[in-house]
Amino acid sequence: GCAYAVVDDAGVAAKDRRCLFVDDVLSTLQELAAHHRRVLGIPVLQITGTNGKTTTKELVAAVLGEKFNVLYTEGNLNNHIGVPLTLLRLRPEHDFAVIETGANHPGEIAQLSKIVQPNCGLITNVGKAHLEGFGSFEGVVQTKTELYRYLAQCNTEITETLFTGETRFNPEVVPHFVFVNGDNEYLMPHVAECSLPSLSYGRPGRGYTIEGEVVECSPCLSLRWRAGEGAWHKVNTQLVGAYNIDNVLAAVLVGFCFKVPVHAIDHALQHYVPHNNRSEYRRTEHNSLIIDAYNANLSSMQAALESFRQTTAERKMMILGDMRELGEASADAHAEVLRQATTCGCEEIWLVGENFAAASQVVSYPSALRVRTFADVEAVEQELLNHPISEHLILIKGSNGTRLFRLPEFL
After folding, report:
1. d(CA 59, CA 266)
2. Mean pLDDT for each 10-residue chunk of the chain (411 residues)?
3. SS3 letters across the chain
4. By CB atoms within 10 Å of each CB, which of 129, 335, 363, 400 scores lowest?
5. Are 199 and 180 in contact (CB under 8 A)?
6. What is the pTM (predicted TM-score) of this model?
7. Which residue, 355, 364, 367, is CA-closest to 402?
8. Beta strand pairing call for 370-374 and 348-352
9. Cα separation of 210 and 199, whole Å?
10. How far apart are CA 214 and CA 303, in angstroms?
11. Cα(186)–Cα(293) distance, integer angstroms
């Protein structure tokens, strides 16, 4: 049904005049998306980070959607193909775009930023993920903060152009800026180094634009937030995990910046329902499930376990899947997670994958705690068919490759 095809195979192109020949299809896709974004010229927020970027993107889009017609990344189509495809969905009727970008090697955020051309940026956090590609935690930090350096360079170019008078820019227009978690010790120095205008969010009493704190988490997050010294607003979310407060406050800040009414911000946050196996609370006929099985790395595992430790339930267990792409840090990371898991008040811990199986041989745990290992998710499914589990609160957490997202139907 296509009118034309863009191809980089000269032999194919020669057979049909409807084939448009280019040197490289991927780079053409990216250049076309950048051109399309530039022509439409609507405000764009670029979001990246190690953990929480998809949830933050969804929350931000929900909040902005109360006032604007928003285009935002579907699912996690956040790479060198997904980003241009998202940008090509922009239409003149859109008021705003929220674009998620991911990376697993140095230089990738810089490349994606040139395609997205954001007006503002948000890095949720930095953590120990994709260490095989980044080489080290410092490599993660340097790659994620490529977004800051891109925005800073845009500000430099605007200033220089304004100074020469060769521009259509309005000097009164707000320059490129960032939303930042003021409590993040790794990101704040880079914001300062880039001399970027910023709006901040974080814990109370530190002078941030938006401040907030957890009210309770049992297991869904309730919090309160306020702008400056203004009135407190309590919000009961449908997100599992106290760690999601940072994602929620980021969405509040973006909405506040773009003048979404306060009551509309609260409405969006309270009615957002997580999906895609992220921070999802689900009651089945037999159990209560906390499903966070889309992805896993050391920092996200630690946050999920700490939240689960604080969650009260009569009978608790967890099913943990291997964390992927951790390189040489993998063995230590799995052992560290398992040690933490033993402190969460569980009756049983089920471990899926060879990395956790190896960790179980070097970590000691109380004799009353039952720790079991499984080669893969199929083995877990078979065990649940033979010996069903009931009346438990169960945390399911692992990298997407372990396919733990298949387990809820067996629980």
Report:
1. 11
2. 94 93 96 95 93 93 97 91 97 96 90 95 85 78 93 77 42 74 94 93 95 91 94 94 94 95 96 83 92 85 90 91 87 93 93 93 89 95 94 93 92 92
3. CCCCEEECCHHHHCCCCCEEECCCHHHHHHHHHHHHHHHHCCCEEEEECCCCHHHHHHHHHHHHCCCCCEEECCCCCCCCCHHHHHHCCCCCCCCEEEEECCCCCCCHHHHHHHHHCCCEEEECCCCCCCHHHHCCHHHHHHHHCHHHHHHHHHHHHHHHHHHHCCCCCCCCCCCCEEEEECCCCCCHHHHHHCCCCEEEEECCCCCCCEEEEEEEECCEEEEEEEECCCCCEEEEEEEECHHHHHHHHHHHHHHHHCCCCHHHHHHHHHHCCCCCCCCEEEECCCCEEEEECCCCCHHHHHHHHHHHHHCCCCCEEEEEECCCCCHHHHHHHHHHHHHHHCCCCCCEEEEECHHHHHHHCCCCCCCCCEEEEECCHHHHHHHHHHCCCCCCEEEEECCHHHCHHHHHHHC
4. 400
5. yes
6. 0.85
7. 355
8. parallel
9. 8
10. 14
11. 26
Extract the tokens encoding 382. Answer: 């078979």
Q: Residue 300 corresponds to which amino acid? A: S
Which pair of tokens denotes residue 320?
């943990």
- Token pair 């800051």 in the structure block, residue: 148
For 107: left if phi > 0, alpha if psi spans -120 to 50, otherwise beta; the answer is left
Cα(192)–Cα(213) distance, integer angstroms:
25
Measured CA to CA, the distance from residue 219 to residue 223 in angstroms comes to: 12
Q: By C-alpha distance, which of 69, 82, 11, 5 is closest to 40?
A: 69
d(CA 95, CA 246): 25
Q: Which residues contact 281 (CB under 8 A, 6 or more apart)?
A: 219, 220, 238, 240, 288, 289, 290, 291
- CB distance 224 to 245 below 8 Å: no
Structure tokens given for 173: 């227009």
Question: Distance between CA atoms of 50 and 299, rounded to whole angstroms?
Answer: 9
Token pair 């040489």: residue: 328
Sorted by sequence, the CB contacts under 8 Å of residue 15 that are 6+ apart come out as none
Integer Cα distance of 171 and 379 in angstroms = 63
Counting every residue, how long is the chain?
Answer: 411
